[in-house]
Design a protein that fits this description.
mainly beta, 13 strands, SKICH, four-stranded antiparallel β-sheet, Immunoglobulin-like, Deoxyribonuclease I, Chain A, single chain, five-stranded antiparallel β-sheet, phosphatidylinositol-4,5-bisphosphate 5-phosphatase activity
Length: 212
Amino acid sequence: QLNMAKKKEAFLQEFIEGPLQFKPTYKFDLYSDVYDTSEKKRKPAWTDRILWRVKNLCQHASKEAEFPEEEQTISVTLNNYISHMSYGISDHKPVTGTFGLELKPLLSDPLVTLNPEGEWSAEHDVLISYSAVPEFPSSAWDWIGLFKVAFRHVNDYVTYAWVEDDEISSNKDSKQVYMSAAEIPDMGGEFLLCYYSNNLQSIVGISQPFQV
């Protein structure tokens, strides 16, 4: 049924599934490995499935400054695709997939170069200088975030500044934005600055680590 749907539904055609090398996962009697013994006696089926697709990040580049097509930036390998027959609290058996991901850089050089200016502390407003390559597709929704060095996700920022709303100076070589002292963490530590591009939906520049 799924394979037939993939032939008809355009949005499913880009999705990939691993080989079904486990028994149908539906429908079981509760707390057993026995298929349906009720009056309906439903036929076993591979109801629980895992499909995936890799989004082409180049599609997010703005039309005004599109980048040339790159090779696929994410390589996905399915390591295993299995059911777990020991679980019996449902008439379905759970299915899991384990994947390996290889992330390739979109560009060899950063699109944006960032630097914290002067000494950073929670006692005064601080400045950030940055410069971008000429073809960079900037947006009013771009922002620069302050992150702890060990951050794991783009939403792990401590605070951020909008590159346009918080800009205080600009010339052909670089721009400056400020962060309010009220937003700088009192406890200090080692931090990074990251430039987030709304058009590319990713971080496109990271500063060297520095102390607050």
